Amino acid sequence: MRVACLGLGRMGWHIAGHLADHSDAHDLAVFDVVDGLTGRWVEEHNGTEADSVESAVTGAEFIVTSLPSDQELAEVATEVLPAIAEGAIWIDHSTTSAQIACELGSGMSAVGGHFLDGPVSGGVDGARRGALSVMVGGEESAFARVEPLVEIYASRVRHMGPVGAGQLTKMTNQICVVGLCQALAEGLDFASRAGLDVENVVEAMLQGSSTSWQMENRADKMLAGEYDFGFSTALMRKDIGLVLEEASSMGVSLPITALVGQFLADVDAMGGTTWDWCSLMERQRRFAPANLPPNNADGR
Ligand code: NAD
Of 170, 218, 283, 285, which is the active-site residue? Predict the structure, then answer.
């Protein structure tokens, strides 16, 4: 069995790495468009360096992609579609619009293959640990064939419905998490300005009703002001853009998501484009009324 992995970035590097660890079960060909990146990956892992998308996917039964956005996915598709083997399954782990997933679903069907949209949650750390949560849209029979492969790098793989349903599930995930992170930033800032021992406050809250993945995994970084890791502000802004566009076409109101989207634009403007998006904390600190310049003559 042959597997092709396209995109060896922060997520794809580890996804392909787990597949390489199981390469007694399949041949693995990898490719990334960045000069030298594929070679560096092959130096560290058990797999074959391909020199193009086309050569990676030729003869592959499974194609696994992890690309930045709709644009790169569409570009890759122009090379994948003419080259696939009959019956090949393409599972895409990028976060994209549901629309492009549907277009690629039709495109792959037209050339005798299957497309599954399988965006992920769990971040770079989840990818490193092989513990991603994968939300998959597409034909059930194709899902059943690819599931054992995905389980190599994921701890939870769920079929969500027809093609596009994976992306709509991921959008729901992002809607549910954006407000949480802003609320956490506000809570930490409030506790700190109230003079409390904030680490102690977090310990108390972790067992209570306000607990969250963000609190468990990000509160310490937010308190330390360390943002040079993780899921970038730029990628979260992309995701929120996708969510708001989809919601607008459905006539759904998402006021908190839209507001935090604006806050992330502030973080971007502060120089936080590549920071983990929990840097909402930095905006909270800098934009607090106490830090704004006084607007009256005697400074009150
Ligand atoms: P990344 O930018 O680090 O990696 C994407 C890789 O795709 C890059 O190495 C890039 O060179 C490669 N690429 C672009 N065009 C290509 C082409 N034509 N052929 C081959 N390779 C090409 O991004 P990432 O952080 O790995 O994220 C990938 C996807 O996963 C994104 O859609 C992101 O929204 C989603 N995601 C990321 C995280 C995270 O924590 N980083 C978490 C969940 C979901």
Answer: 170
